[in-house]
Amino acid sequence: MSGRHVRTVTGLRAEGQLGRIVLDWTPVPWDTVVDHYAVYGAPDAADVEVSPATLLTKTVYPRFVHGSLGGNARRFAYRVVTVDAAGARSRPSAPLAASSQVSVTSTGSPLAVVGRYDGKGLEFALSPNGYSRYPATFPNGVDFRVGTDAPGTGWSYLQPGPADSWAGRRTHTFRLRFDLTAAPAGEMWLAIWLIDSHATIPGSAVLDVNGTTVDRLRFEGGATRGSLEGDATVPGTRLRPSYLERPLPAGLFRPGENVLTLVKDEGSWIAWDAIGLFEV
Amino acid sequence: MTEPRLNRRTFLQLSGVSSAALALGVAAPAEALAAVEATAAGEHVPDGVFGLGVASGDPSTSSVVLWTRLAPQPLAPDGHGGMPPRPVPVRYEVATDESFRQVVRRGAAVASPELAHSVHPQVDRLEPGREYFYRFHVGRQVSPTGRTKTLPASADAVFRFATASCQAWYHGHFTAYRHLVAEDVDAVVFLGDYIYEYGITSSNLWRQGAAVTPEHGVEIQTLEQFRLRYSLFKTDPHLQAAHAAAPWIVTWDDHEVQNNYGADGSRYGVSPEHFVHLRAVGYRAFYENLPVSLSALPEGPDSTVYRRFGDGGLVRLHVLDTRQYRDPLPMDAADQNREDWTILGTDQEAWLYDGLATSPARWNVIANGVTVAAITTNRTDQWDGYPANRRRLLAAMQTTNNPVVLTGDIHRHVAAELKADFADPASATVGVELICTSIASDGDGAPTDAYTPDWVQHPYVKLYDGRRGYVHVTLTPEAMTSEFKIVPWVEADATAPLETVARFVTPAGAPGLERLP
């Protein structure tokens, strides 16, 4: 009811990460029945005016992942308002500002990229929900040649794993072939962006470059929604994107054809946003 | 039965404005009502406040809970139904005749914005096995008339009820309720999935002629979204008519919160620490939107919905909660076969087994969310995931008179005999399980489908049908007759006729399913 005191959240914290800023706060005690927390944000500012125009999300959780911020460092100011079961609103929390981290997709030079780093997987084969056709379409996994093949037919939106019965409960290998005119002089980075992954068993994949095993890539748990929808930028999306960027050892790449191989031999599927190699 | 009454102790436990407002949704003392009416005097309440209809539920042999939620604009995006943000007095009357010449109870409650302007008055001191009519008043507005009925006290009575579940509004019309309303039932037992949390988009909106605005297109998470989702489903006129036709006894399954959740565990990557916040709003909206007693009002993320109805005599109903207390889905066979693994939780198990063993009733009806019968070991969301708990349940069923399990969840009609030892299909039959198909979930369906072989491979499964409908049950001292009813389509419109695909009789004292022609 209007005029009643509704508790303001405390303990607002922020952590800038690749492509996102993670906010969390201390939930109000249970004796306040919370309808939702309203999170307000404004770019490139030290504070934000609480208004419908700056509302970023309504969430029942004491946490908000401000995602799909892209590869550049983005700075935002935030405030959080508690809305209770009667529709009454608290005073806004104190403001807090934070920045996301810059991505190698912004600072590096692309040498081989499949897809767009845009929070969407819609450009890929079988997207957004054609996983049941994966076994027939990609019986031997993906073998994609940059400059020749098209993402819409050559790169599956999902890479299954051995936990996926619909994909035969086996490992699945994706190969990315690309040509270099010369061995790269700078540091090479791999940038993998996912729009989502399996929530509880995203698993891992073995990364191999030109026949040399580099490492095992472990994926973040997502929301198990990316098998059915492909756009993590839709307001209210439940997709949970994740970002994996790392330098690769020197000397792996050579003039002529290079092959990067991902063998998904643990866990369930991942849903692609983009994959690429960048020289920094 | 579990005591839901707003007694003095309950009142004393409540404190502060918010708690008082909650309590006033049940019964408003005269002085409180006068204060609210004085405050509200002269303030306009929008027309059409009964847009979500009326309902009754949680019947005992002497009482029933009445329900309405004031919402002149049921689909207002903020979930408050177009009501002003202030308390509104609601008066009700209960009569023995439809024209309200013989009014036997009058009372009042306060509809507060904290509870989305819902009220849950409990009417006591009624006669057993008797039909009553009720209506609400808000200012000069009068609600539609509802019919309700107390449970029978006599062991010689006849008790007729229907079971229903899984009403994905977007998958089809609630034709089954149109037919159910025409039946002369004493109660409706609803077995879970009253709403679904999924976003409603062109890919799942199969209900022809329906359209939704963009706020319905995302998976629901906030209380306002849950309230709005209940409102959307309740806009179906046949659902409103079914609520107005008989008292409902309701339990939940998973979709009142999130698909396949268990306790504080989400399948979708929400941490337990965070998931309880979703559960809190899901349970809150359940209370606000259904005719359940005050005992189901959540405290934070916890709500007690397992409860018991019937004093003995012909029937006692044991209503279970197979979601809130379950151990996590088993990760492997070792988990699955642990002796201490439970789908009910320790307290509810003890409560159920004690209630079965001490029940004097002729029939002991257990309302339950997920399939008890052994089907396949990979159906771990059902009792198949908790075989040790199933053995304990089956043992407890042998301590009581004529146990019958009612189930929903699977969107299929299934009739099964429950065996003393499912590892030995030749073992004794200790009870029966009547699984009702969905009201609308999965759209039109078909008599058989890809899942049929999993079920009919077992000699104790006596029926499988994958179309929409409900189960009608008649209990007498001598026998239970169960009739499985379907409608051939639900997606195109609500005109489909009713068909009975199977009838079974279960004699008292001889558990089993004898198919009738």
UniProtKB/TrEMBL annotation, chain A:
Highest taxon of the lineage: Bacteria
GO biological process per UniProt: carbohydrate metabolic process
Residue span, Rhamnogalacturonan lyase domain: 114-277
Short name of one Pfam family: CBM-like
Entry protein name: Rhamnogalacturonan lyase domain-containing protein
Organism, as annotated: Jiangella aurantiaca
TrEMBL record, chain B:
Superkingdom per UniProt: Bacteria
PANTHER family for the chain: ALKALINE PHOSPHATASE FAMILY PROTEIN (AFU_ORTHOLOGUE AFUA_5G03860), PHOSPHATASE, PUTATIVE (AFU_ORTHOLOGUE AFUA_6G08710)-RELATED
Family annotation (Pfam families): PhoD, PhoD_N
Secretion signal, residue range per the UniProt entry: 1-34
Protein's UniProt name: Alkaline phosphatase
Keyword annotations: Signal
InterPro entries: Metallo-depent_PP-like, PhoD-like_MPP, PhoD-like_sf, PhoD_N, Phospholipid_Metab_Enz, TAT_signal
Stretches assigned to the PhoD-like phosphatase metallophosphatase domain: 161-484
Annotated Phospholipase D N-terminal domain residues: 52-150
Source organism per UniProt: Jiangella aurantiaca
